[in-house]
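Tutorial sheet, problem 5. The two components below are modelled jointly, 837 residues in total.
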Amino acid sequence: MTETKSTALSSSRWSIKKIYPGDLISIAPLVTFRIFFGLLLFGSILRFWLRGWIDSVYVKPPFHFTYMGFEWVQPMGNTGMHLLFVLLAVSSLFIMLGLFYRASAIFFFLAFTYVELLDVTTYLNHYYFISLVCFIMIWLPANRSYSLDVLMRPHSKRSLVPSWTVNILRFQMGIVYFFAGLAKLNTDWMVNAIPMRIWLPAKTHLPIVGPLMYESWVAYLFSWFGAFYDLFIVFFLLNGKTRPVAYLFVIIFHVATAIFFPAIGVFPYVMIVSSLIFFSPRAHERMLSFLPFYKSQNGSLNSSVFTFAKPKVLGVCIAIFVVIQLLLPIRFLAYPGHLFWHEEGYRFSWRVMLMEKSGNTFFKIKDKATGKVSEINNAEFLTPLQEKMMSTQPDLILKYAHMLAAHYKQHDMEDPGVYAEIYVALNGERSRLFIDSTIDLAAQPLSWGHYNWVLPYKDKR
Amino acid sequence: MKKNALLSIASVALVTVVFFACKKSPSTTVTNPETGFDKKAMLTQYADGLIIPAYAEMQGKIAALKTASDAFVASPSEGTQATVKAAFTEAYLQYERIVAFQFGPAETALLDIYLNYSGGLDYSFSTAGQLTGFSVDTATIENNIASGSYDLTAMSRNTLYSQGFPALNYLYCSSGAVSRFSANAANRAKYINDVVQRMKTLVDGVAAKWTTYRTDFAANTQTSSGSPIAAIVNQMAYQLDMMKGPRIGWPFGKQSNGIVFAEKCEGYYAGISRALAIENITALKKLYTDNGSGKGISDYLVSLKKETLNADVLAQFDATLAKLQQVPDPLHTAFAAQPATVDAAYKEIQKLLTLLKTDVASATAVQITFTDNDGD
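Model answer (structure tokens):
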């Protein structure tokens, strides 16, 4: 990848745009995005550390639910994990400052993704989003203006960038919102206002609006507004006329979700910050002008352009990325059965706060040689969080069963069979048997295919 | 563009105001008797009608136990032993009525850990010879008595297994409880006194703290992790996990392919395991209904239109109690002699656990987890 420096194209951006139609814009959106997103990463890493989660999630648990194909990804112990988080914090600050930007972005992406791959039970959509954005940021010239890299190497400064560098971030935001909206278009959410009708009565402690939380029309309002917001907010953000009001809604919506559902963590702030990317380059320049030492690019006679050396390779790569992003969330269509029940194709699909599901499991280990049966105490092997997540997700149930079989093989049981009686309650319905309790889970292979041992879902509402 | 900037500033200001308005002013009462459910009234009733009186009762039983204990150690005989056994049983049964209140002051004071250590749910139980479940560390107890030097506040499994109800159970009720006074009687008396006094201090401390804690307790109507409502629902699930585990299931051999660990039963020497289990479930039912006051979790479920679920939970409590009552006393003998009756009770316990852990928790939007974490 190389850059060329073009000079004296014009005295204003708008005429440059005429020369390179729709192709070049000010670097300002990338710079503000780099600064805000870097800060956000730093805050998230710090928060994770301060809550003691490095220890409770990655150091203490003896067993981790790995992703299929990533079984080799294992934690690095107490010192190693804490050191990694120190480096994550440092590299997030470097991203913000634009210092050793490319190296920091590569490191942050790899290290953060490594951490996320350690345990499926910690999967959160916004962590996946952070991984994706960090991957994109590796390829963006976000450090080519108002950065320490430019301070050290002034000749690397650029004021114009190809518009795809900003549009790819907008695309990623659009994917998150639109698929989150599509996911809400199901009977439970739209017709029955569930899970809102379950969750909102737990929020009556809120001042002013508290008493309303028992009203079912409020649950419908929340459900319908949420679906409408997710489906259409991107289009209102893209349109310059509606953008300011749309961003107001972004703030209101996400602050509201933060107040109503504090358990969603940093997600609202991720979205509030990331949505800034929809503002015009001029708005971003105005934002940057409030910062110290910032010199406006407007009216500069020496506008320098950042270009990529191999546009064809780049185009293909972007196309592949876009297609993957479009296909992953709809892969659930390839599986039979009710998505919320089977959760085949549920992750990596922007299904956020979509259902109320809980389960209770009774695992048994059977020595097939002697026929002796013992019950398993889950708390002996899993943390409360791991047990909670495992109880309702078939692939994790299978992973756990395999782990138990391996454990007992090590402890002098030649041929262990693992059986489980599992009850799951979905979206306010009564709990019922989740999987075939006569199936030896140890003999069932992990697979991308449909798990036949999960009992079919029957709507009893 | 100026308009846009103004709009942005106005929006940020508005959101800030809304945000802080929502953060502060927790004292606002939110009740709507027509359509809603008064959670503050529910929690107030829990505190004043159930929890605080139960702690007062516990103080009384411990005081009575101390009197009987003093008489026993002053002149150990079968007569004084019978009296202290009765007082001990009374106090232990009362403890089952407060054991599910492991939040607020009791949680801070580690009351359950010091009074009735169960080894922890995450500890491998089925190891013969190891201190697990409701074991008693008789070796450490006798060493402590012999040496006369010990620190009951130390955080080690040996220390925890040599005090509280399990230790007293051994010291009052085991065979030879009286005859062991023939040697080192002064040290034995002192040890018993120290154990009882420590239990009394802990219970008095927790009871005293509730007089101030009750206001915070009743005012916090959230359901997030650590809130009173979440704590009550979580405790019901936890206590049933304990029943399935160290109280009945594990000593019964559920985890060990039928190998029974009789001496790891709760209240083994006194032979009151079954009575303790029945009292525990009875107290849980009272916790669920808030002692039938009309202001309990059960009534909250009814207000959420979960009448069927509520009826099923109440019926399952009764079914569990009925099956437990069919197990012949003492429980640890029934494990081997009448396993079918224990198994029948065990199955009902599992059903009740599932109802509370999944259906009730889901309906009340409470997370069953003992740690806080993000989720989406």
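Marking note: Chain A touches chain B through 66 residues (CB under 8 Å). Full credit if you identified this.
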